[in-house]
Write a structure and sequence with these properties.
The chain is an alpha+beta fold and 365 residues long. The protein contains ten helices and ten strands. The longest helix has 49 residues.
């Protein structure tokens, strides 16, 4: 806490330096040692008296520092009155600036305490809602710079900084950055939409672009998921909103589909019984909903069947499909049920007669 207050005071000190360069100097009081006006006008027989030199410059050294007006020369530096006036101007400016500086510091402390209270309420609410830690940190940072930035603007205006010109420059820079980083801003907004809509959460198994993986982290720029190969795949948040995303963890069970084809001469009921008997003894497969075998298609050379069964662990979907594809093939072979493959039959309607000459060479008739 002490370190943060020290940093805050350092910012205020830097702000005071900026105000020093922008605050106009108080008008200097007339010097008490000004030379009296001449008592007589010069006559023709009497040469004109030389006008006495000014005891101080028209522009003091303090005005030269703060506003940049006037000139400074060696003659100015050699005059004690010049530096006395400088000290008077500096003391007068300091006495007028201290109350404004104290007011600015008080305003910053008030905004600091406001930020701490709002952040505590916001973070506790997001923890209760199960929001990801990275999103909590990002929202906390945005809240910090929003509240303290507003406090700095008010404090700067209190000590005399030209806030209007500063905000104009910041607006122009923000506009340029916005045009240069449209994709980043789009991902940021998409991250807010994912946080608000919650199509998936950290730990869910999702499928996008045909890839199945577990969500590991959601930030304001990207979503990171670990696929079945153990690789971390990073998707921009805009893609997560624009593409089709299948959330496998939304339901308590996941269906596995195993496709197989049998010959037209084989019995569908017999093949169905073999396949259902195969899955009945597996404890990993749910009894409700019950497994089933359906006819999906009548193909060119086979009757296409699909075995449906349900499991609780969605991450084992691919593994179970690969396992039962092999087990169904072995079970059908043992039952004598043919799994056909495409055959190509060439039929020639007319074949030319070939005769052999005496020399043994073939000749078409």
């Amino acid at each position: 806490m002490a370190t943060r207050i020290f940093a805050l005071l350092l910012v205020v000190g830097m702000t005071a330096v900026l105000a020093l360069a922008q605050t106009p100097t108080l008008d200097a009081a007339p010097s008490a040692t000004a030379a009296p006006a001449p008592t007589s006008q010069p006559t023709a027989s009497q040469p004109a008296a030389t006008q006495p030199a000014a005891t101080r410059s028209d522009v003091s050294f303090w005005q030269l520092l703060t506003s940049g007006e006037g000139e400074f020369s060696i003659q100015h530096a050699l005059r004690p009155e010049y530096w006395v006036q400088f000290l008077q101007d500096a003391i007068a400016w300091t006495l007028g600036f201290i109350p404004r500086l104290l007011s600015a510091m008080l305003l910053l402390l008030i905004f600091w305490f406001i930020y701490r209270m709002v952040r505590k309420i916001l973070v506790s609410g997001m923890k209760a809602a199960g929001v990801d830690e990275s999103i909590r940190d990002m929202l906390g940072m945005l809240l910090k710079w929003s509240i303290l930035g507003f406090g700095l603007i008010i404090a700067g205006n209190q000590i005399g900084i030209q806030i209007a010109a500063l905000l104009t420059g910041v607006s122009i820079i923000g506009l340029a950055i916005g045009f240069a980083s449209q994709e980043t801003i789009g991902n940021f907004i998409a991250g807010i939409m994912i946080f608000w809509d919650k199509p998936f959460e950290v730990g869910d198994w999702i499928q996008i672009d045909g890839h199945l993986g577990q969500v590991k982290r959601v930030t304001f720029r990207s979503t990171r998921m670990q696929d079945m190969d153990g690789d971390i795949v990073v998707y921009p948040n805009m893609k997560m909103l624009s593409e089709k995303v299948v959330n496998k963890s939304a339901n308590a069970v996941t269906r596995c589909n195993v496709a197989v084809g049998i010959a037209y001469k084989e019995s569908i009921e017999r093949a169905r019984g073999v396949m259902l008997q195969l899955v009945a003894a597996d404890g990993r497969i749910e009894k409700n909903p019950e497994p089933e075998v359906v006819v999906k298609n009548l193909g060119a050379s086979s009757v296409d069947l699909v075995l449906h069964f349900w499991i609780k662990e969605e991450r084992y979907e691919d593994a179970m499909q690969y396992e039962y594809m092999e087990r169904v093939k072995v079970a059908l072979d043992q039952a004598g049920i043919e799994i056909p493959f495409p055959h190509t039959q060439v039929v020639m309607e007319s074949v030319p007669r070939i005769e052999f000459a005496e020399d043994g060479k073939a000749q078409a008739a």
